[in-house]
Structure formats: C-alpha cells, structure tokens
Amino acid sequence: MPPYAILSHTWRPDEVTFADLGSSGLEWQQKEGYQKIRFCAEQAKRHGLHHFWVDTCCIDKSNAIELQTAINSMFWWYCDANRCYVYMADVSHASTSNEQETAPWWTSFQKSRWFTRDWTLQELIAPKVVEFHSKDGTFLGDKLSLEYTLRDITGIPAKALRSTPLSEFTVTERESWARNRRAKYEEDMAYSLLGVFNDETRRKGDFEKRFKKRLAKQRLCHDLDAKRLVQELDGLPLALATAGAYLTRVSMKLTDYLRHYGTSWERLHKSTPSLGSYKDRTLCSTWQISYQQIEKQFPLAARLLRFWAYFDNQDLWFELIKCKNDGGPTWLRQLGDELVFNEAIGTLHDYGFVESCAKSLSACESQGYSIHSCLHSWTKHALNEGQDASLDRLTLECVASCVMQQLIDGVPNKDDASQALRLKRRLLSHAKISFARNQDRIEDSDQPILHALGQLYTSHELLDDAENMYSLAVRGCERTYGPDHVNTFTFLARLGITFGLQCRMKEAEDTLLRALCGQEQLLDTKHPFLVGRFEEAKNIYLEIPEKPMRKPGPEHNTAMFAALDLRWLYHIQNQFRKAEAMFRLALGGFEAMLGPNHKQTLGLVSRLGHLCMEQDLADKAEPLLARALRGYEEMIEPTGFAQSREALAAVADMGMLRLSQGQRREARGYLRRAHDSYMTLLGPDHARTRQTQTVLRELEWLSVFD
What we know:
By secondary structure, the chain is mainly alpha-helical. It is built from 36 helices and 8 strands.
C-alpha cells in the first residue's frame, strides 16, 4: 500500500459519490462536496503524498460486499494513513475587527458538529497525525498542539489521542467516549465502533510479548514462574506493565513476587469485598505491591500519588503544585521544590504509575504528567479512605492560586497571550473537579477563589459557570462587607459583564449601573448616579468630557472598569453616545491614576478615537488619534512602536481617517506603515494585515486617476 492521506468530515446533502466519478460528465465538480475533495488533494500534494482517500466517493455503496468490507476496515484505513485532514465545514477562520483573547474560530471549533458524530470518533483516535482545518482551508492545529482542547471537548484522555493501543483502556472507558455522539441510523453507531472495540484483536498478545521481552533481559523468559505470573495476571496490559516495572526496579525472584501478589489479593478481598471483578482485583493487587515499595523508597512520591486523587488524572504539572506551597502542609512545601517534585514523578514513572503528556509547545511551560483512569480511581478509593475535606480544599486553592498568579503576571505580548490561553485550558478540568468537590463548603471569605474561577470560566466562554462564581462572590461580599462596599461593586461589575456576554442585556445594564452608581456614591455623594439617573449623568460627562475622577483609590479603580464594561455593553448594542460617555468617564479615571501619557491611557484615547470614527465624527476623532500617536512616539522607542498593537491600531485608524477626508497621500503613508509592521508582528494571514493590505490595493488603483 503506497503512502496516502485520508479525509475526515461530516456528510452534507450535496456530496460527490462513487457513481459521480464514473459518469461521463463533470457536473459533479459543481457540487458543494467537491470543495472537500479539492482541499484534500491540495493538502496531500503539499505533504508529498500522491494518493488520498475520501469516503464519499471511494466506496461503491451499491455493492453490498464492498460496503461491508469498507465498514469493517474503516478503522484500520484511518490508522494506516500517513495523515488525516479534518475538514470542519462549520468553522470559519475569519476574524473580526475586535481583538479577542481567544482565536476568532475558537468558539465555533468547540461547538463543531464534527465532535458529535459517530464515525468521527475513530477518525480522531486511529490516525497518528490528525490536522484540523477550517472551511476556508486554514490550518487550525493538530492532535498534538490541540491535545488539551480535544481532551476537554471529547472526554478522551490524552493518552488515547496519542495512538496508545486501545487495549490499554477498559471497555467502559471506550464506551464513555461515544456516549454523547449521534448517528443518523441506529446501526451506524455499532458499525462506527467496530475498530474502537476490536483493536485488541489486531494487537493480541502485544503486552504479553513486551512483558516476556522484559523478563528475557533477566533470563527468566523460560521460567515456569514467569509463565505462571502471566497467567495469574490474566494477560491484563495494565497489570503486566505494573508488574514488569516493579521487577525492573526491585531485585526480587518471581516466586517472591507471586507470594506478594497472593498476599495482596487476600488482603484486598478482606478489606474491599465490594470489589467483585477479577480484573479489578488483579489490577489493584499489583498496584498495592508497587505502592508499598514506593512508600519505603520515597515517601513524598507516595504522598504525591495520594494527592493526585483530588485532581484530574490528566496533566498534572509542577507549577500547579507549587502555586500553593506557602502556608500549606510540610509535604506540599517539599514538593514545591522542583528537584524534589521531579524526583517524585520519576519514581512514580519508574514503577509504571505515571506517563508524560505531550511535550509543551513553549519552553516556559512545564511538562505535564498523567495516570491511567483506572489507577486514578484506585487512588481515590483505596489510597484515600473517605473524602478528606482538607485535601479537597487544598486542591481548589492550588488551582485558584495558579489562575491568580497568571492574572498578576499579565500577558504583555502575543506569544505570552497564547501561552496564557494554553495554561487556562490545562487548568479547566482541574478547576471543574475541585470546585464540584468543594461547592458545599464555599465560604463568604472565598472571593479570591471565586474571582479566579470566574475569570477562568469566562475565558472558555463557560458563562453559566462564570455567572455562578460571581453570584456567589456578590452574596459573600454582601454578607461580609455589606451591599455598599467596593468589593461588592467589583463583583457586581463582573457579574454584569457576564450577563452581557450571555446577551441578557437588561440584567447586564441594571447590574453594571448598580456597580457604577455605588462607586460614584463612594466618590461623591452628590453625584447624579446616586439616584440612578443615568441620562442626567451621561449629559454631565458629555458636557465636561475631560472631567477627572477624584482622588485615586480602590473605589476609583473599580469605577473605571465598571464604566469600561458599560461602554462595551452599549457599543455592541450600537448605542454609541452611551458608549462614548462611558469611555470618557473611564478615560478620566485612567488619566488621574496613571497619567495622561501612560500606555493604558493612550490605548483608551486611541479606542475612543476609533469609536468617534464609527460615528462619522471626524472632528472628534482626529485630535484623539493625533494625541495617541504623539504619546506613543514620545513614550516608545521606534522598535517598540512597531511591536505595539495599540500604537499600530492608532496609525491604521489615522490612515483611514485621512482617507475619509480625501487625503489619499497621507492615508497611504499611515496605512503602509501599519501594514509593514503588521506583516512582521502578526504575519500575512492576520485580519489586521489583510485589512490594511486591501485598503492599500484600493488606493493603488485609485492613484491611477490622480
């Protein structure tokens, strides 16, 4: 079989069929489905592959024998392909003018129909290389770079996504991967899972061979005790792997290991009679032997394994543990030393308990580690008898501390922003598990934890979860500090913006106004916001646009951001005058706190100028953009200017303003400067680069008539 590529997609009504390819005409090239075939051909050519396979047109469905053969072989066709291209017809890479922390395609990718179909499960698991592309052919990532995301969307562990033999996963685990998928016909669900559940047939004996190979190194492959041990472990891959790892690390005769195994089995039978499955007893017995040895050799490694029961089994890393070592128990502070943590992980790895996750995309990100879900279940029910509330709480604090540390560090550039987003994806599953175990014990003083989780959920557009966090925080603040405290208003603002993201505009406006009114009441008891008269307040701020806020302080800070939140809410509803009023209110606060030429102040000036341009208010926009440009040029070196998105946005906006004023030559100069810097900073495919390039082309065409 020559090397080939294969296509994964969801079927649409207008697909190219096997019969179409055999017809004399070329009308089938006008079908919508032909675009997928062209896409697959182009990608295969790009990777030097001369053959590709598409299920819509490569199976003669009128031939019952061929169709049945294809169904039975589908898993292996995908498994043996050099590359699998996923064509996501409902995901667009097109960006918007607003810069988001997440990629513009992110939301539609998470909600794609591709993740809900029956056949695409094996098409995700089987191939070694799976690439995801939007409907316009843009590469979005592959199984490696999107591993955390795919794991969270599908519930499939990272180990399975890395083409680990499926025989290492229980039938129950594999059934859970298909639980939320849908099929057009009921029998299709069974057909689509043939390869997923029959994988061990092709790999039969693989683990026994590996186990015997390991014993061969110790010249025990013909030992009767070795054969007996394989029989005792019933050929179970996890049990064989654990026993093999133990025998590699510990100098022990097989007869002694069999004796330990029998003792462990009997002890387990007495202590856990509810563990009825022979397979479960076999696994737990081997794990218990290895765990007792780890306790003797390196107690901190055993302690880490016990603590792991309170996290997700996928992707535990050093910084997640380190974040909460100040004031924690002694053993956790010791694990907060990276050398000690790595030694503990190394010990667990040597005994077959831990595996490395995919390599990090950034040198700044720490390596992650995972344990098998069956082993994780054993750590919860055998190593931790009953639920330890203190460890539950400690886990939640570790997750929240990791999020809060990221909020403190900030994201100064594009690479850091991408890294921050990946970190949030890594944290999400741990956050959900730890909060679920602690939700009945949340206290009024837990606002920092709720704030961190609210931020995390908002960044993943899990808005119901974010709303729950901020609502709990508001109630806690009201009970602790009262309804008119700055902390209460801070969380009200967060809750209001969450309502806005949920398109609950009336609740959003009411909540944000309550937050802003409260802040203004703290600053000035005579201010019209005191009585909630928004229109009167708006007129005051429009009449005195440069009115500064009063003495900077914590109330001051929250009022500024409440105003910015209201500005966003009004902007997306095209209520530009209200948005402008809130912009000016926030700008006054930034000027008072940070100064008129601070980078953040200049960013607001530039955005306010852009807002005025949207309203065709060139006379208001021009002085604002000119002020922003002057400030950036004074505050930033030329090389830094070309690396600042905010500064380049002001340059591009000034170019568009000059174009609207008919000053083409000046417009061309500004836009060329912005375009060239965007090319270097963001690349040719970024929306901002393409937008400036399009306008420059139009200007070149118009210059013919100058």
